[in-house]
Design goal:
By secondary structure, this protein is of the alpha+beta class. 35% of the residues lie in helices and 14% in strands. The two termini are 22 Å apart. It has six helices and four strands, in the order βααββααβαα. The chain has a four-stranded antiparallel beta sheet, with helices on one face. β2 (49-55) and β3 form a beta hairpin.
Length: 176
């Protein structure tokens, strides 16, 4: 089994990509209120700041900043994934191993995590998150995608309302 090593820096900012096991599903947007409730409940018990977030039908990207002295993002993802899955009917297919362990088959087992190194790294990931609905062809204007922190970023004056990442360029594959 591979030895997954994660960068754990207390109080740091991290970029994440989290996928559903079924990459053809639309579960995340179909159950967006459940996902939002699950994230809110997790934040209430295990504080973190959401810098940016986009939810697409079968995957999501986000930037979180953890509290000073805290580097345990994996606990938060465990809670979010478990609580979300627990509230859904068990209709997904499961492997023999998942059945034996009593696990659900909703999420990919792991997720992509990246420790943000500096301001430029932060900005690139922030832009990548918000441009993702265009990259995947869901909308032509980011303001039309309702499952994103883009509108919050516009309200804060970070982006103009018509900001658009445009077509992806070489190297714009953060988290993929």
């Amino acid at each position: 089994m591979p030895d997954y090593r994660r960068a754990r820096v207390p109080g740091a900012t991290y970029f994440f990509t989290v996928n559903l096991r079924d990459r053809s599903s639309d579960l995340l947007i179909r159950e967006i209120e459940l996902l939002r409730d699950t994230v809110r409940a997790t934040k209430a018990r295990h504080a973190f700041h959401i810098d940016a977030w986009v939810v697409l039908p079968e995957h999501m990207h986000c930037l979180w900043t953890l509290p000073p002295g805290d580097a345990d993002f994996s606990l938060r993802w465990k809670v979010i994934k478990f609580a979300f899955a627990k509230r859904l009917p068990a209709t997904e297919s499961r492997t023999t191993t998942q059945q034996r362990r009593g696990e659900r088959g909703i999420w990919q087992r792991r997720y992509w995590e990246h420790l943000i190194r500096d301001d430029l790294d932060y900005q690139r990931h922030f832009d990548y998150i918000h441009g993702n609905p265009i990259k995947h062809g869901y909308v032509q204007r980011l303001a039309d995608w309702p499952y994103s922190s883009f509108q919050r970023a516009v309200a804060m004056g970070i982006y103009p309302a018509d900001w658009c990442a445009g077509p992806p360029s070489a190297g714009d594959d953060y988290g993929e």
